[in-house]
């Protein structure tokens, strides 16, 4: 991954400006540097000092600052970057962009740039739904501006809810990664424009598609208080769900028990056991793409006790195991209603690629994402080293942050799905 990727982040005057501090930190973790412009109103919500401390360089605020002009100049500022990101994109900034106003540093940079622009709108639902904002957004769509969010939900204003919440830093990051990757399907349709309140988007490499993702472990009850589990955290599956949503898909996430938050803009169904997960998956079908990244327990106890088993001196209780349903194979082998693309995960501790190739053939899926979980801290950790195994061969990726794996994987899957659809 190149360390030279950079964005110009324009922080507008909305309550969501505080989320940009987290975004800057996450961008840095990914080797993406951010130079920042803070609008006058933005500076009411976060300080230039906080922004510059996190970004690691001075935060720009004033069009007429001679020092800034001498240092870099507003034209160069808007072009010496790979991507302009506006977050939060206020109703005001959106209006200025739509009409081509240039009366402060942010709007001037936006008008002067020769780079692509990604915006993360954030405003009160009434402002978002106002005909003026609708008109302005339609204009930006025509102008090729990329959009992530907004999400739907409770507002900072008491009692208000609806579309207008800024996308979460992880979602904005995923959108930035896709925009910076500049891969063909992304370039064609990375618009994300007009995300609907339900989380689906009208544009994006997966626009109009229903993507089903499973994530996390399953818990298989032994008795009412004990269960069999594994170390899966759900970080990889949840990141995939977030990346698919950022790519424009309507996403259903079926998650086993995890302690991480549900991704925004995704319908999350929580389950406990493998049997519940299969039932939830089947209820969520049809789907265009299914990605089974959950670490489903292979076995459960044959006779789950209805009362807590007692240590009563009569010896160790026999725990006979039986096989759980195979969710990946069940869905991949469906005669009717099989998703167009079925992706499985293989967590192995040895012979990773050979086992994945055997699994691909046995399960009837289209792609296996294989990873070595033996002693590397992958399960529960933040990084992953994966190999993409198809009937055509194996593609091995370097060790990447799980969110980066998710973004790349979603772009890869979108390409595969487009090839299959002949588009
Ligand atoms: C407490 C408070 C919160 C605000 N939140 C938002 C917001 O989330 N979105 C928005 O479009 N405007 C919001 N505004 C209004 C903007 O700050 C105002 O339109 C300002 O002119 C925007 O300037 P800018 O676009 O240059 O940053 C808020 C104002 C206040 C006082």
Q: Overview of this structure, please?
A:
- The protein is an alpha/beta fold.
- It folds into two domains: 6-189, Rossmann fold (3-Layer(aba) Sandwich), CATH 3.40.50; 210-421, Rossmann fold.
- The chain is 35% helix and 22% strand.
- It has helices at 18-29, 48-55, 66-71, 74-79, 91-99, 105-112, 125-129, 131-142, 169-181, 184-189, 235-246, 274-284, 327-332, 352-363, 402-421; strands at residues 6-11, 33-38, 83-89, 116-121, 146-147, 151-154, 161-165, 210-215, 220-221, 227-228, 250-255, 267-270, 289-292, 299-301, 321-323, 341-348, 367-372, 383-384, 386-390, 393-396, 400-401.
- An eight-stranded mixed sheet has the order 12-11-8-13-16-17-19-20, with helices on both faces.
- β1 (6-11), α1 and β2 form a beta-alpha-beta unit.
- α1 runs parallel beside α2 (48-55) and α9 crosses α15 (402-421).
- The model is unreliable at 183-200 (pLDDT under 50).
- The protein binds flavin mononucleotide.
- Residues 12-16, 39, 41-42, 88, 90-93, 122-123, 127 line the site of flavin mononucleotide (FMN).
């Amino acid at each position: 991954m190149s360390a030279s990727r950079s964005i110009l982040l324009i922080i507008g005057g909305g309550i969501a400006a505080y989320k940009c501090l987290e975004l800057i930190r996450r961008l840095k973790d990914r080797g993406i540097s951010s130079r920042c412009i803070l609008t006058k109103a933005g500076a009411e919500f976060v300080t230039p000092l906080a922004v510059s401390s996190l970004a690691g360089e001075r935060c720009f605020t004033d069009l007429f600052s001679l020092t800034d002009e001498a240092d870099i100049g507003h034209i160069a500022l808007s072009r010496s970057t790979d991507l302009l990101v506006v977050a939060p994109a206020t109703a005001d900034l959106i209006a200025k962009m739509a009409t081509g106003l240039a009366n402060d540093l942010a709007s001037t940079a936006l008008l002067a740039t020769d780079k692509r622009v990604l915006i993360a709108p954030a405003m009160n639902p009434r402002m978002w739904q106002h005909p003026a904002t609708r008109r302005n957004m339609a204009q930006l769509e025509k102008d090729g501006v990329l959009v992530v969010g907004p999400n739907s939900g409770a507002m900072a204003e008491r009692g208000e809810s609806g579309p207008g919440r800024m996308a979460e830093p992880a979602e904005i990051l995923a959108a930035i990664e896709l925009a910076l990757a500049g891969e063909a399907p992304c370039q064609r349709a990375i618009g994300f424009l007009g995300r609907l309140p339900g989380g689906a988007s009208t544009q994006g490499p997966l626009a109009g598609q229903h993507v089903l993702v499973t994530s996390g472990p399953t818990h298989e009850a032994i008795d009412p208080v004990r269960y069999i589990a594994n170390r899966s955290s759900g970080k990889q599956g949840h990141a995939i769900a977030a990346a698919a949503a950022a790519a424009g898909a309507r996403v259903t996430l079926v998650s086993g028990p995890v302690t991480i938050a549900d991704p925004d803009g995704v319908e999350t169904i929580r389950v406990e056991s493998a049997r519940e997960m299969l039932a939830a998956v089947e209820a969520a079908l049809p789907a265009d793409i299914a990605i089974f990244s959950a670490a489903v327990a292979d076995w459960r106890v044959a006779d789950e006790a209805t009362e807590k088993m007692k240590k009563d001196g009569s010896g160790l209780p026999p725990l006979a195991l039986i096989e759980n349903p195979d969710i990946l194979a069940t869905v991949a082998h469906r005669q009717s209603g099989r998703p167009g693309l079925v992706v499985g995960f293989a967590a192995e501790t040895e012979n990773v690629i050979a086992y994945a190739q055997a699994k691909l053939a046995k399960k009837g899926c289209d792609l296996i994402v294989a990873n070595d979980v033996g002693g590397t801290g992958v399960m529960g950790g933040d990084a992953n080293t994966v190999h993409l195994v198809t009937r055509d061969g194996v593609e091995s990726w370097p060790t990447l942050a799980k969110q980066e794996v998710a973004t790349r994987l979603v772009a890869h899957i979108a390409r595969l799905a487009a090839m299959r659809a002949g588009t």
